[in-house]
Amino acid sequence: MMNTQAKLSLLSVAICMTTFNASAALEIYENDGMSFSADGLVNAFYANSSIEKTDAEGATSERDQSRVRTGFLPNNIGFNFSNQLSDMKIGMRSSFWVSISDADNHRDASPADLGTGSLIDIRQFYGTVSGDWGELLVGKDFGLLNRANILGDELLLGFGQTSDFFGLVDGGNVSFGNISTGYTYPFPKSQITYRSPDLNGFKIAVGLMDPNKVAADSSEELPRAEAELIYSTEMDKVNLKAWVSGATQSSEVDDVKQNQSGVGYGANVKFSGFSFTASGFQTKGLGHIAGLDHLVGDESIKSDGYLLQAAYTLDSNRFVLTYGESEVENTDSILDAKHSNIGIAYFRTIRPGLTAVVEYNQTEADVANSLVGEENNTLSIGAVFTF
């Protein structure tokens, strides 16, 4: 499915992984309708992985690897500005994301090039205009396809899968949560997006995105279009949330037109401390490489997957069970792949803004013509700081 060169090039892309601000903002200034705030997250995990591989010739190999590295969420800091002007509010957000998993990035470099990279990445830089009619966002933000899928992942503050096939065990960036084992990643994109106000529990978002190129010489006459519909309600202390999202774009290479598209969906139910989530996706030509939805290709490449999760929260303790898988099928060849992850996690809120995490994940891969099999057992222990 993926040759060695493609896997190595993936490492330079993966710093743009994972996800969104999940903490409360700290108010720095507020006066006469104008406010400025900041939010931040720092995390680090000790992870021990035991990997067993079987290659296309049937030869097996094993290795164990210990790392101290970033979890699913990169460390980040964000700044928010808003100004209420009569019936209109103007806002801006910028966020900067950093990986700490760069200690061995320069192992093959010359002495003059040694050092830490820090891998600073800007994923959000946008302005908003909002009112009773809704909100218009202009700038760079995460995409809409599978956005709710990843935001609802119970492992958002945890670790998740680290398939060695994708170079994640020794990668200099982040772990993957359930990217490529249940959903695709809504890669940050330049966009113009409208979000509606609450309409009897329904909220809709529609965006025009900078299209993703199939090849350096491909032609995209129209922008990429993405949309998301979310329904939320509460009935007798039961909270229900359901969603569907989609994306479509067209590319032309050597006078041959290709159509890429995808749909994501899911539902979450919460009651009495329990949370149950089921979500899934289907795509053509989108996210078939490591679940990164900005990497597009031939429409004959199809992928689909699902994620099932159960969680229980008791006081300061949260317990999570998770299983997800994704499959890729190329109808023009036999380059098929299947990736799955099963995990159990324990989150303990020690103090507001400080969470301890213990997590175990078993990730498996079956990739035709490249890797017959991989089994990766990873135990991770970490801490997450937020403000």
UniProtKB/TrEMBL annotation:
<keyword id="KW-0626">Porin</keyword>
<keyword id="KW-0472">Membrane</keyword>
<dbReference type="GO" id="GO:0046930">
    <property type="term" value="C:pore complex"/>
</dbReference>
<dbReference type="GO" id="GO:0006811">
    <property type="term" value="P:monoatomic ion transport"/>
</dbReference>
<feature type="signal peptide">
    <location>
        <begin position="1"/>
        <end position="24"/>
    </location>
</feature>
<keyword id="KW-1134">Transmembrane beta strand</keyword>
<dbReference type="GO" id="GO:0015288">
    <property type="term" value="F:porin activity"/>
</dbReference>
<protein>
    <recommendedName>
        <fullName>Porin domain-containing protein</fullName>
    </recommendedName>
</protein>
<dbReference type="Pfam" id="PF13609">
    <property type="entry name" value="Porin_4"/>
</dbReference>
<dbReference type="InterPro" id="IPR033900">
    <property type="entry name" value="Gram_neg_porin_domain"/>
</dbReference>
<dbReference type="InterPro" id="IPR050298">
    <property type="entry name" value="Gram-neg_bact_OMP"/>
</dbReference>
<comment type="subunit">
    <text>Homotrimer.</text>
</comment>
<keyword id="KW-0813">Transport</keyword>
<keyword id="KW-0998">Cell outer membrane</keyword>
<keyword id="KW-0812">Transmembrane</keyword>
<feature type="domain" description="Porin">
    <location>
        <begin position="13"/>
        <end position="366"/>
    </location>
</feature>
<dbReference type="GO" id="GO:0009279">
    <property type="term" value="C:cell outer membrane"/>
</dbReference>
<dbReference type="InterPro" id="IPR023614">
    <property type="entry name" value="Porin_dom_sf"/>
</dbReference>
<keyword id="KW-0406">Ion transport</keyword>
<keyword id="KW-0732">Signal</keyword>
